[in-house]
Amino acid sequence: MPTPQKEQIVKEMTDKFGRANGIYLLDFTGLDVNITNELRRNFREANIEYKVVKNTLAKLSFQNAGIEGLNEYLTGVNGYVISYDDPTLPAKILDKNKEVKERVKFKAVLFEGKVFGPEMVEKLSKLPSKEELLGQLVGMLQSPLVKLANTLNTAMINLINVLNALENKKKE
Fold first, then answer.
1. Judging by beta carbons within 10 Å of its beta carbon (0-12, 13-18, 19+), is residue 88 exposed, middle or buried?
2. For 107, what's the count of Cα atoms within 13 Å in the CB-facing half-sphere?
3. Distance CA 57, CA 46 (A)
4. Which numeric CATH code is attached to 4-127?
5. At what angle do helices 33-45 and 89-96 cross, to 10 degrees?
6. Which has the closest alpha carbon to 39: 8, 6, 79?
7. pLDDT by residue (tens digit) across 2-27?
8. Where are the domains of the chain?
9. How much is the pTM?
10. pLDDT < 50: residue spans in the chain
11. Is 120 in contact with 109 (CB distance < 8 Å)?
């Protein structure tokens, strides 16, 4: 029987799941309070949310948000790591903390609208961040333009040097 509290949770999680670029499902069985608090603190500092929601409410939230493919992983106890900006950031944060990484068991990840199994989390932690990729793109786009400008500048300098030499020769 739906209660107003459960309806509010589904509404809130539907909004969060709908806005997310990356959602990581993890099994938090065996995590003690200290590790969980450290995990939450690390995520909070990076503007990432960590939520624990009942599976039935998560299923409804995924359905309302139009997300498919995660229902088969909704067994047991699940924590949801929700990233809005950079979908690789949660994997990078967990990769930095070896103790947490060894204890956390990933079930699945929704990365930019596609569902992957736990083997993908390790690969995601090795990907460059969105800012790094944008920086590389700008560098790649800028390089040919800089080379063209230098080539044109060199040709112009050579022409000026030739004209100056010709002027000096005529003066002599």
1. buried
2. 19
3. 26
4. 3.30.70.1730
5. 130
6. 79
7. 788 989 999 999 999 999 989 999 88
8. 4-127, 128-172
9. 0.72
10. none
11. yes
